[in-house]
């Protein structure tokens, strides 16, 4: 059975069409990634699936229940870790967890045992009696995840779990999520705008752009589907003829991107294309500092399907 | 459903009270502010207030007024807690869990009401030291506590609804002042009904702040009637229920917008 099914979800805010027919499904026990830039519609999708808001049209089922018809049944089956921490700053870590458990109808020894277990799982035992105001960003995030897990949900939603964390905390969080996925046998839907994150954590990925899913599959499949390789040409610092070089490279490869002195293009075969590119640039008298070729990354996949460069897309907040 | 509502409300009240107890400044303000009101207004308006009044000292007249003012402003500002919970996404977290919506509102209303009762108690004790007597005895004390709690509850419900609709501190402050200040001056908090111009008197009849003030004043001052007092309290119960439902309904508007 599928743990999450989304069918043709549409939603608009005033003049903005946030979702324009989003459909996908997630198998039980799978870690599924929604990948896309801010504003693409990832968080809106998660808010609909977690019953926080309603779609204008379309249907969605989580843990077998219709989110619009039986929101409370869905709420009992899911854990939700929002993009922004939902921690109560004035309460201690333990108090945060106890209240969430009580909302889910847990009490007594069972609740306390579960809270202790989670505090240990996310490594917050020593900070459990401290008010969360004093927690670091990474600690708050770990507490968020523990809060989402108190009632042993079947499906966990992680909306941008590592946004705002420093690289070290992010790496730690990845290990955490991997461990949880194994230990709690959860279905996890994770949204992210970090390519490496989706690549590392998600078994399957859907790329979201402008309220639509433009590609879906395992990271490997997505990269494989994108035939060819990427070639990066770094021009020597002294010649300012980037535009001319771009024109030349565009005659040989496709999807040419310029970033300062660096040109990137996709070609069917790197080994064959490099001498051609170097020859053409040499003929034009443009000096080259380095050339590299690489198998497609998720970044290239993203660029291919959305026509936009991932790294320059990342601005503002939805 | 009801058991769940009561249990969740209870735990959320625990959360609110516990969090407030961790704010020493808040506790100090809660205790000191009403005293300041009583002492400052008592001095400032001594001569004005002495007019048009049948019996008792002005401070005796003013005490229920300040208790009412304190309770209704307390309720009016209580929505700031909702703004802070919205900003910190605590509300979203509750809404994605099987939380009974009314429990979120009720816990805030109860918090505001309990605060109002504590402040009423402090004010009454200060007033006693200043020579004020509650002429209706124990029943009178209870009316004062009930009046303070209900006034606070009425405006806490309203305030939380506004907080859910506006979701911004600045807008919330503007709305609280825009509604709160006129309601205060269109009531008999500071001056007797006899001193009011006709049109204010007419409006004041429909002002919940005035109902609470009159009920409490009847209970404190000599010669108050129980009949109108109980009617005023009953009206406040009705309005408090209405504003709590309004706030609960505002969750829908909030959820539509996210």
Report on the architecture of this protein.
The complex is a heterodimer of chains A (318) and B (258). In chain A, 45% of the residues are buried. Chain A is built from twelve helices and 14 strands. Chain A has 318 residues and is of the alpha/beta class. Chain A has helices at residues 42-49, 71-77, 93-103, 108-121, 137-149, 167-183, 195-201, 219-225, 242-250, 270-283, 298-306, 310-313; strands at residues 2-13, 16-27, 31-35, 57-62, 65-66, 78-81, 155-159, 187-192, 204-209, 212-217, 229-235, 254-259, 262-267, 288-294. Chain A has two domains: 2-223, P-loop containing nucleotide triphosphate hydrolases (Rossmann fold, 3-Layer(aba) Sandwich); 227-295, Alpha-Beta Plaits (2-Layer Sandwich), CATH 3.30.70. Helices cover 38% and strands 28% of the residues of chain A. In chain A, the strands form three sheets. Chain A has a six-stranded mixed β-sheet with strand order 6-7-8-3-9-10, sandwiched between helices. In chain A, a hairpin with a 2-residue loop joins strand 12 and strand 13. With 258 residues, chain B is mainly alpha-helical. Chain B has one domain (2-257). Chain B is 81% helix and 0% strand. Chain B contains twelve helices and no strands. Chain B has helices at 2-21, 24-44, 46-49, 58-77, 79-87, 90-95, 101-129, 137-166, 169-185, 198-204, 208-220, 226-257. The model of chain B has no long low-confidence stretch (mean pLDDT 91). The A-B interface holds A 13, 47, 50-54, 72, 75-76, 78, 80, 82, 84-91, 95, 99-100, 102-105, 131, 147 and B 4, 7-8, 11-12, 15, 18-19, 22-23, 85, 88-90, 92-99, 255-258.
